[in-house]
Amino acid sequence: MDKNPDILFGRHSSVIITLMKRKRLAVLISSIAATAIVLPVAFYLTLIAIPVNKDRPNHINNDTGYVKAHGRNIYDGNGDLLQLKGFNLGDWFNQEWWMASSTVEGFETGYYTPKRGLAAMKANPNLNDEQIDELQKIYIDTFIQEMDFKNIKEMNMNVVRIPLTCYNFTTDGYTYRENAFEKLDWTIEMCEKYGLYAIIDNHGAIGSQNHDNHSGADDTWDLYGNEKNENATIDVWKKLATRYKDNKTVAAYDLLNEPRSGADKYAGKLNFDFYDRLYDAVREIDSNHMIMMECFTFPIHGVNAKKYGWENVAYSYHIYNITPFNGNGFVLDFYKATTNLMGYDVPIIIGEWSCWDEKENWIKSFEFFDEQGWSHISWTDKTNQYMYTHEDGLGPRMKPWSPLVIDIKPANLYKDTYEEIKEVYLQTGSEHATTTVIYDIYIDKYCK
User: Fold this and answer.
1) CA 116/CA 213 separation, integer angstroms
2) CA torsion sign, 77 to 156 to 88 to 365?
3) Could you tell me if 382 and 96 are in contact, meaning their C-beta atoms sit under 8 angstroms apart?
4) In the predicted model, is pLDDT for residue 27 greater than 80?
5) For residues 407-426, b (16+ Cβ closer than 10 Å) or e, as one string?
6) Helix 182-193 × helix 146-154 angle, to 10°
7) 83 Cβ contact list (under 8 Å, min separation 6)
8) The pLDDT of residue 8 is above 80
9) DSSP 289
10) For residue 234, what is the DSSP state?
11) What is the DSSP string of 45-114?
């Protein structure tokens, strides 16, 4: 047959040939585009399918008596496989404005932080320095008591994470208070009494490691590169390591909570270089305790531990985006895939997380963490729900954050009298708390 296009297609042959070429080009472009989509999707699905931690020996040789990171697993002091499960003791040493029993209304623009709260009390004409110290002690002695450790143990948990800031130990980030570590000593004694491990969490360094209110101060981002603040943070960890190096109830040192590489940026090399300085400072004193570093906020915001020569370390993720996007497990699968992508050969601890009132997602998360062999510590043991359920707070959001809640209008540290603030603080104990759906979920999962 003659292949001359003019014979085949007549006077429209040139137009038809052009269209055919364009169609072939379109098909080629579509094929390339499809490949560009299919290959990453296939790679992602492969990463999801690969077990993060399939090799989990039930026992290793560990005669140190200390909790230990070994490969991708954690082992207790006898060498038995250990999955840490428990709660943060949030809003205690470090009140956070959205769930706090304190406000600074009328003092200055900005939310309550421990730094701003102390400044508000000092500016309050109704308070003197002695009363300020007494009120701080009343709150710390009331919000968490022995009954709380007993309750956590009765929920079959085995660990608490203790969020602390530089303001718990010092008056200004540099000058240590008398008996600065007394309450932390008591906390760890309570953990030992009730068979719980303790994780010491530096939630707020002087200068702030993240510029967030939960670092104790949201008016600055001046830790990294500030020699005075870096040295003060290193000094805190030297003191903690010296004090607790022989204490086997302490499972780990969590060096910095949710570090950022910029005021509004995720963690990066800047943070891990400083982690390395903190690691070296601790290891000069304490060679036994497990050390935690936080990949904030996703696994890709971490680094290979071998780059720095770290040993006996665990990485921590904080997962607060499980709902409402996790109906099909997408978010948890994303953490699994990106963990595989990064190839971390260290244990993973979910240092903070919550599914609020979504029972199905709590159960799904428990199963997922168990499957991966990941430890998990939810946020948090108890909150003051007033700020997130009342119109004069954040508004009625009605999502529980903890197994236990109190519901107290916060004290105004700038205007209220000593007696008014004291009355509020004395109502923060768990004897005034009620349980939530989160409590029921944990009881159903771990106590039946």
Assistant:
1) 10
2) positive
3) no
4) no
5) ebebbbbbbbebeebbebbe
6) 30
7) 74, 369, 370, 373, 374, 375
8) no
9) S
10) H
11) HHHHHS-S-----SB----S-S-EEETTEEE-TTSBB---EEEE-TTTSS--GGG-SEE-TTTSSS---H
Element (H, E) at 32: helix 13-49
- Identify whether 396 is preceded by a cis peptide bond (ω within 30 of 0): no
E strands, 283-354, are 290-294, 313-319, 348-353
Q: Which residues contact 395 (CB under 8 A, 6 or more apart)?
A: 388
Residue 328, pLDDT score? 55
- What is the model's pLDDT at position 13? 47
Distance CA 51, CA 326 (A): 19
Task: Give residue 31's identity as a one-letter amino acid code.
Answer: S
> Higher model confidence: residue 69 or residue 14?
69
Count the helices and strands in the chain (H runs, E runs). 15, 15
What is the model's pTM?
Answer: 0.90
pLDDT surpassing 80 at residue 12: no
Closest CA to 274 of 288, 289, 294, 290: 294
pLDDT at residue 36 tops 90: no
Distance CA 22, CA 279 (A): 61
- Residue 30 bridge partners (DSSP): none
Beta pairing class for 382-384 and 68-70: unpaired
